Amino acid sequence: MNSIRLYDQREHLLLASYAMHSCDTEGRVHAESPHPYRGPFARDRDRILHSSAFRRLSGKMQVFTGEMGIYHRTRLTHSFEVASVARTMARVLRLNEDLTEALALMHDIGHPPFGHCGEDVLSERMEDVGGFSHNEFALVIVNELEQRYSAFTGLNLSRETLAGQDVRAHKAEAAVGRAPLLEVQLVDAADSIAYDAHDVDDALQMGLLTVDELSELAIVRRAMEAIRARHGMLPIRELRQSLVHELIDLQVSELLSVAVEMMRPLDGRNHEDLQNLGVRFHHGDVLRKERRELESFLFNAVYRHPRLIPVRDSAARRLSELFELLVADPNRLPLRFRQRQRTLPLEKVVGEYLAGMTDAFCDHQHRYATTTPRGPLADW
């Protein structure tokens, strides 16, 4: 217990008053004794990091699927990049880094195979049972499907970590009224910043975009001006890497600048005070407009690129066929999911099984299911 007191004292000295302090946690669904040298959110982070679902993110492509995605970002690398950006911002603002990192590592854990096209397929196929949301499925994974402990199902994460993921699952409701924890907001901002910058990187590397095309965007022009002022003219490979770095740094720097000024008069208040006041981090008006322009451009120029559409369509077809096959013959589900069917609609169970798959595992099970007329598919 002495170690726990030292942990709390350390947070009291290092964290802002409005950070989420470990001593203020509302605990877990299943009560556990305090750890001798780790706080509750550090334990959450480690449980997520060591979970099977987190490891499977290495086989789930971020945007580019199939052969297009071999050398590009996966959900796992993206999660680490988001954690790095979010943790850096949390340190500057004196927020809880352990909670921030736990939330960042968890944020994409519910993504299905084949990127956004996989989610589109499951959303359509599961429409009669409430649709599919990867943010909501993340909560199903950590509360029900992960089996790491004998005393309870799931990971038994702290209520604050679960609540942070629930905010992601209900963003529209969280955007008004009582604000989410500041650590939750940082992860959401870091996700968006990292996602856009790294999709630019991957698209440039694949030749889907050129620097000239990107330079039509105001935020890219700003980044390019900063690069040239600092380094002059660079070879294309170095320019691409510098551009990604500058896009992230530009957005993080402004968010922190705005946040520091916003927090200055609030020092001394606690996290609940700021939530009740509806305090929310944001970029300035100019950068918000520039970010919208970048995201609109990426949606049309990259996510709908002619080279990407056939690959996505093929992946969507395989996932859809596998969904139909399992709904028609639920005995082909693994035992664990046949048991879940006792309390859940069949379409929901099939969707859960498919959503937990990696890209390659889904393709393998599709081949097995369509070439072998009987027998359950493999569990993940």
TrEMBL record:
<dbReference type="InterPro" id="IPR003607">
    <property type="entry name" value="HD/PDEase_dom"/>
</dbReference>
<keyword id="KW-0378">Hydrolase</keyword>
<dbReference type="InterPro" id="IPR006675">
    <property type="entry name" value="HDIG_dom"/>
</dbReference>
<feature type="domain" description="HD">
    <location>
        <begin position="75"/>
        <end position="196"/>
    </location>
</feature>
<dbReference type="InterPro" id="IPR050135">
    <property type="entry name" value="dGTPase-like"/>
</dbReference>
<dbReference type="InterPro" id="IPR006261">
    <property type="entry name" value="dGTPase"/>
</dbReference>
<dbReference type="InterPro" id="IPR023023">
    <property type="entry name" value="dNTPase_2"/>
</dbReference>
<comment type="similarity">
    <text>Belongs to the dGTPase family. Type 2 subfamily.</text>
</comment>
<dbReference type="GO" id="GO:0008832">
    <property type="term" value="F:dGTPase activity"/>
</dbReference>
<dbReference type="InterPro" id="IPR026875">
    <property type="entry name" value="PHydrolase_assoc_dom"/>
</dbReference>
<dbReference type="Pfam" id="PF01966">
    <property type="entry name" value="HD"/>
</dbReference>
<dbReference type="InterPro" id="IPR006674">
    <property type="entry name" value="HD_domain"/>
</dbReference>
<dbReference type="GO" id="GO:0006203">
    <property type="term" value="P:dGTP catabolic process"/>
</dbReference>
<protein>
    <recommendedName>
        <fullName>Deoxyguanosinetriphosphate triphosphohydrolase-like protein</fullName>
    </recommendedName>
</protein>
<dbReference type="Pfam" id="PF13286">
    <property type="entry name" value="HD_assoc"/>
</dbReference>
